[in-house]
Specification:
Blueprint: H1 3-16, H2 19-30, H3 34-37, H4 41-49, H5 54-73, H6 78-88, H7 99-107, H8 113-120, H9 130-139, H10 141-162, H11 166-172, H12 203-217, H13 223-228, H14 231-240, H15 244-261, H16 265-279, H17 289-303, H18 308-321, H19 348-355, E1 374-376, H20 377-388, H21 390-410, H22 420-431, H23 433-439, E2 441-443, H24 446-468, H25 481-488, H26 490-505, H27 509-520, H28 524-529, H29 531-554, H30 560-563, H31 565-589, H32 593-606, H33 613-628, H34 633-653, H35 656-659, H36 664-674
Antiparallel strand pairs: 1-2
Length: 676
């Protein structure tokens, strides 16, 4: 007599017979069995005389008996629980009786599949305890994805905003001289609180002061601190519980999203979920202790950017993951060093090696060698996803840069550095992670890593030496190998762009613009892969602009331009650099909506300092005019909607309505923005 069947029966009986005969008959046939209550039967009649509804009496008894049964459930064995579930499951739709089957299923480690299939169609499934929902998700992965995708979206949106400082942080980290331990900033240990006041002095002292200021304002929370504060990770770990199956399904879902979107932020989610699992007391069994060790070593590399022991541990962890030591990169014997004249004495080995780079034939290990590094299946996916995490990739680039600086200081070749082969190998995996994840297979490409170490790094060292002696770099020198490798090899491109960011914080417009020009010569897809560079560079430009603004605000001089000429000269140098780089970006990338947006935001930051509003308006007008001619109407319309919020902010901040009557550029921009 449950649900619709009971209602249909009563309706039919009342239709055929008078209520006076139907009600007593129904109570007698479907009421409480008098044999179960014994001496309590007379009490029913007494309660009837006092106007107590029989339904209320039965409801009170049902609650009492239900509570007694719920207490007893914990003492039953699995066989008794299964039998009781069979008898109570049909009552799941009755609110008063629902707690009984719910508690039985909560206690059972393995709910029978027949019941789980029925639960999947139940609209009340979100009210079920998490223990039941986990077993439902293990049966229906689509239901799990339906639950977690909103969490993934929230994580990516929040993470995308918080990672804009990742690359600038690693570029500027060597110049950070203090530490804010309260905020969990991943800067140097034990040196007090960050000094955020820019001194604004001239020359080399000005650069040093500026770098220190920028480093203080580009700091990011340490990985462990960041994970501990992330509510999405906590929720996902709660969903997983101790279920290895659910964890694998979550990681598969994240991997699929990375393959579909090519958004590396999903790699960060993948790695941070794993790190959170390792840092918690979870009982989830990971597939391999070797991969767990690799995760921890990568985390150490990100957290301790100056710790060489972390690289030694990472090398050992990579060896374990590959089961046998990865392929040794075969390098040609180093030539005898000579000493060129003048400033070229420093780095003479690098100069001689680079001059012979075009004549050298790289000898790489035979791809068919049995000791070639191989990964397959889930291990290859895990390694590729971990290394593609922007935090890890940036840490790799930062470490490579540090080792190249070490080579310059010691006047040694990259081939002789003990860590560059490992770092280059990992960078290769990062650059080709999507292909590795898709194929679930990785085989080391020793030729590519050898070319980086033997040919490309010496060329980078040459440019570093040129920078040191204020000599303009020549990317066409030595047979144009730098340009060739930049265009051909992803690893070379990323190292070059990281180098470009280093020169940007030193206000080196010559090097910065030349590498921007190289990037502009690539295909559209290749340019879009380097979105991190544009967001980082424009972030640095905006930071320089805000730094100058801060310098003016914190100055005790009433008119720093007049009363302190030395400060004014350095500020003008900074402004000239900002305008030159904005001009270079605008001339090449006006048609790229995301880069276009970043440029406009830099213009907004620049408008707060000494950069005249007429200059800002002129830049913006030129950007818009080129943008209008850059693509077809459909693409243009989509890009305009993407840019609309940024330009509305531009309109309000620069008060275009006030300038429109007297400034032609302002009038043009105002009309264009109003038409969006």
């Amino acid at each position: 007599m449950l649900g619709k069947d009971g209602a249909d029966f009563i309706l039919e009986e009342l239709t055929r017979n008078p209520p006076q005969s139907v009600i007593p008959s129904f109570q007698e046939n479907n009421g409480l069995d008098t044999s179960l209550v014994g001496s309590g039967v007379p009490a029913f009649g007494l309660l009837d005389l006092h106007g107590v509804r029989r339904s209320d009496v039965y409801k009170g008894l049902a609650h009492f008996l239900r509570d007694q049964l719920l207490e007893k459930i914990d003492t039953l064995d699995k066989q008794q629980l299964a039998k009781l579930l069979d008898e109570s499951f049909p009552y799941l739709s009755i609110p008063e009786l629902r707690p009984v089957p719910i508690k039985i299923m909560k206690v059972l480690d393995n709910i029978p599949i027949s019941y789980l299939e029925q639960l999947l169609t139940n609209p009340l499934y979100r009210e079920f305890p998490i223990e039941i929902q986990r077993q439902m998700w293990e049966v229906d992965e689509a239901l799990l994805r339906f639950e977690v995708f909103p969490l993934f979206k929230a994580y990516i949106e929040d993470h995308g905003a918080s990672t804009k400082n990742v690359y600038p942080h690693f570029v500027l980290q060597p110049y950070a001289v203090r530490r804010d331990s309260k905020a969990g900033l991943a800067t140097e240990e034990g040196e007090g609180v960050v000094d955020a006041v820019w001194e604004g002095v001239q020359g080399e002292e000005g650069i040093t002061s500026l770098l220190s200021f920028l480093a203080a304002h580009s700091s990011i929370p340490s990985p462990k601190y960041r994970r501990a504060k992330n509510s999405v990770l906590k929720k996902l770990l709660y969903f997983v519980g101790s279920s290895s199956s659910l964890y694998d399904k979550l990681q598969t879902a994240i991997t699929d999203l990375y393959l579909n979107t090519n958004n590396p932020d999903f790699c960060t989610l993948y790695s941070e979920l794993l790190f959170s699992l390792l840092e918690s007391d979870s009982e989830v069994a990971l597939s391999s202790t070797a991969t767990s060790a690799l995760c921890l070593r990568l985390n150490e590399m990100v957290s301790s950017p100056k710790d060489l022991s972390a690289l030694t541990s990472l090398d050992a962890a990579m060896t374990r993951v590959f089961s046998t030591r990865t392929t040794t990169i075969v390098i040609n014997p180093a030539p005898a060093a000579t000493t060129p004249s003048g400033y070229k004495t420093r780095g003479s080995t690098a100069r001689l090696e680079a001059s012979k780079a075009t004549e050298t034939v790289i000898q790489s290990a035979n791809p068919a060698e049995p000791n070639a590094g191989m990964l397959s299946g889930n291990t290859s996916v895990l390694v590729a996803m971990l290394v593609r995490d922007p935090y890890v990739t940036t840490a790799l680039l930062s470490r490579i840069w540090s080792r190249l600086e070490f080579c310059v200081e010691r006047d040694q070749m990259p081939r002789d550095d003990e860590f560059l082969p490992l770092l280059t190998r990992l960078l290769y995996i990062s650059c080709h992670s999507r292909k590795i994840v898709s194929k679930k297979k990785y085989k080391e490409k020793t030729k590519a890593t050898t070319a980086m170490i033997q040919q490309f790094y010496p060329l980078v060292i040459l440019h570093m030496l040129d920078n040191e002696f204020n000599v303009p770099i020549d990317i066409k020198a030595h047979g144009g190998n730098f340009e060739v490798m930049f265009k051909r090899e992803k690893m070379a491109r990323k190292v070059s762009l990281f180098y470009c960011l280093h020169r940007a914080v030193h206000l080196d417009s010559n090097t910065t613009i030349k590498i921007i020009d190289l990037l502009a010569s690539l295909k559209l897809a290749q340019i879009e892969e380097e979105g991190w560079f544009f967001s980082s560079l424009t972030r640095i430009l905006a930071s320089i602009a805000s730094t100058l603004s801060a310098a003016v605000d914190t100055s005790e001089d009433l008119d720093p331009v007049i009363q302190n000429p030395s400060k004014s000269a350095f500020e003008q140098e900074c402004l000239q650099f900002v305008t030159q780089i904005i001009g270079s970006l605008s001339s090449h990338f006006f048609g790229h909506a995301s880069i276009h947006k970043d440029i406009v935001q830099v213009l907004l930051s620049s408008s707060e300092i000494h950069l005249p509003s007429t200059t800002v308006l002129s830049f913006a007008k030129g950007l818009v005019e080129k943008f209008e001619l850059s693509s077809d109407q459909q693409t243009l319309a989509t890009s305009k909607q993407f840019l609309k919020p940024t330009y509305l902010a531009f309109k309000d901040k620069l008060h275009l309505n006030q300038f429109a009557s007297t400034d032609a550029d302002a009038a043009y921009l105002l009309n264009w923005i109003d038409s969006l």
